[in-house]
Here is the input.
Amino acid sequence: MSAGALGLLLPAVPFACALVGLALPLRARAVAATLGIGGAAAALVTAVALLITVDAPVETSARWVDVGPLVTFGVRLDPTATLVGVAVATIALAVHVYSVAYLADDDRYPPYAAQVNLFTAAMLLVVVAGDLIMLLVGWEVMGVCSYLLIGHDRSLPHAPAAAAKAFLVTRVGDIGFLLGVALLGIRSGSFRIADVLAADLDLGTLTLAGLLLLAGVAGKSAQFPLHTWLPDAMAGPTPISALIHAATMVAAGVYVVARLYPVIAAAPATLAVLGVLGAVTLLLGAFAAIAQDDIKRVLAWSTVSQLGYMAGALAVGSTVAALFHLLTHAAFKALLFLAAGCVIHAVGTNLISAMGGLRRAVPVAFWGTVIGLAALAGVPPLSGFWSKEGVLAAAERATEGTGPTPAWVAWLVWLSGLLGVALTAAYATRLLVRTFLGESRISGQSVRETPAAMRWPVLLLAVPSAALGFAALGDGFGARLAALAGDRQAGGDLVDSDVIHGDLVHFGPTTLLPLALLAFGAGWVVWLWRRDPAADPARALGPLTPAAVHALWIDDLQRALVVRPVRALARGVRRLDETVVDGAVEATGRGSVALGNLLAAAHRARLPRAVTAVLTGAVLVGMAIALGGLR
Amino acid sequence: MIRPAIPYVTAALLFGLGVYGVLRRRNAVLVLMSVELMLNAVNLILVTADTTVRAALPATGQVFTLFVIVIAAAEVGVGLAIVLHLYRLRASIAVDEVPLAHDSRGAAPPGTPPDRASADVPGQAAPDPTSGAIGQQVGSR
Amino acid sequence: MTGGDLLLVALGAIAVGAGLLVVTTRHLVRAGLYLVVCLAAVAGLYLVLTAELLAWVQVLIYVGAVVVLLLFAMMLTRAPIGARADLDRPGWPAALVGGGAGLGLALLLVDAVRWSTVELPAAGDAERIGEAVFGSWVLPFEVLSVLLLAALIGAIVLSRPDIGASRDRED
Here is the structure.
């Protein structure tokens, strides 16, 4: 089977399984589980096959419809896409297996599994799409699935609101994304990605399109200021948080930027905006993660922060570093979420203030969390160390100002990245000690056993979290990631292999700086913990604690400035519709009836009035005839 | 030798007075009297016209007047029979208290025997409270 | 102004004055009596206009029968004796329409004849009218007999309480 056909099959198989799964009755758990796991497994097999067979960019495209600019239907496969595809499929499979046990007592499992499959299909479509419209379709379907899955558990009071918030906030970004896609398609004459990248567009168009695309990226990849939906989206089931909000959907924005990098990198303004957004997001996420009490919210803010790293890497001109960090983050963040799910399943609460001393009780979750947090913080030799080093190295190299990025942006990204390392280490250490170490603060019931179906995915994901970094030492991996960068034809220079290698593996004096900051951050938290094992280390923030807990109240600001006026406007429009429009319609009816009653009453005139009317009429008619005749 | 304008004007004034009476009086018998005035005015016009207009057939005006007198007599007979029947039903022959369309506001109770000394007023209640507008309270009494 | 004119004016004044009293008096029975005066004046007018048959028919039927009927009706409906204040409805629509009708008609007629004079035919027109009625107008005459018959029967049916009651019970 040709690579192109395999590429089309990659999203098609999970999609078919999803369609069948959506039609299943709620009792058919076994069938739904089979479809779910089977769909994800098939996708994984296809992705691995593609990984093996694709060395050079392969493209198949067919003309679909001509709406002015040409819309095509096809896939564009290159080594990067296959790598990301494998990552997506692996995590989807792990999540499916995990969900069978996690949702064992949920009575709406079949639609859940089908929606996860649909989501997987959409994400894979985004990965392999060769046409901007296809990419947009996948993008939007991901948003819908995210909404459906966040609101899966209808018994939670805040789940529907969180789902709606996620959908609406990303929608705001998606408007910009749609406009950007439309602009690119119209100006290039075709929506095919290869045509768009090859088209000779002027700087103004490129800047505008880039900024509009960044709006969508900011929404989906939770950059400031559209990041507010991600912490609330933790109302969804934990496997969903692992799949969608850690590994795949939020990374889709980064992937699309890497895909369309020539467009983005052509305008320094776009890169500057991306850099600023990334830096702010990075620091904001880390700051907020320090003081959260809900374990999933800590991980959510951590995701926001790491996405800031990826955006920052893109801003300083290194798609390779960004994509590498995307892959390692997918591995260790999914691992962390699944381990957190084990802990929540065991203890029955999300709050780390009600945990503690779980080291012996849930050992799999403990060691998984240790590996995941170490990778997150960037402890060598785990994968996160290599990818974060790559990002910081790229930023440092860009401070010289030779790349497409303005130097001040590179300085901003680099310095905030370094500061973020310290903060990341701090919150990671805090999470570990509060959840697993020290005295138990668990109240009430005993700790539940972790089922096998939940243990194995954790163990499975621990492997790439630990070892993926070593893959960077080989040339093949770097070349694969750089396949996208090799498309850079317009504007930026073609990146040579030394630089690629250097982005991934960098040992130099500046390597020690993040390690020192990591040690400082972790050590400080450990010292605070040792001093008072029962207290929350976040108390050390002192007066800044409320600001951290509420993440600088940005969410509340959005609610006051945007949500409430829109709601008031909606209420006003509804009232207008009910009173004016409906009122006009009803008034027509009532008016007709009243007029009819008036005429009926006129018919029922009392005798004297009737006589008066008749005689008056007679006199008037007589006058009319007489005067007419006299003339 | 007469000037026909004089009887014409007389007839016109009588007609106007008859219309005034029909619209003003509440007692049905008085209304019938006003109708008689109108008919007489018409008769007078016919008779005067008979002298001023040369009709194809001679004495047409007077013949018509005769016919009108006959019709008027018949009308008075039947009309008064109706008035008496109304009186038997309502004990009142005020024309503005004749009920229409099944509403009983302002009407006398039906079937009261006509031998109450003070109840046989042409009009049960106080005078028409709506002073004035034609078409006001249409059907609301 | 000839004598005839003077008579016409006088009789006309009586007729209009009596008519005015008919429609404005507050005594019910006096209205009937004023009507007698008015109708008699009109009969006089007929006489001046050399319509003698009509004058006597007027007196016989109108004054003799119709007014008597009206007075009977007043008695049977317990018309109040003496002045009553509640005989009238509001006056201004009546005045408006009545005045408009009367004045309009007057203007129309005066405009037709102005101040011209006309010769009256000779007296003794009963024979003329007889010839006309039974000659040219015999068909309307017969129809009128039928009308009178219908009116007679109708008045009897309406007046007899037993016939009216049975009809009510049937409804």
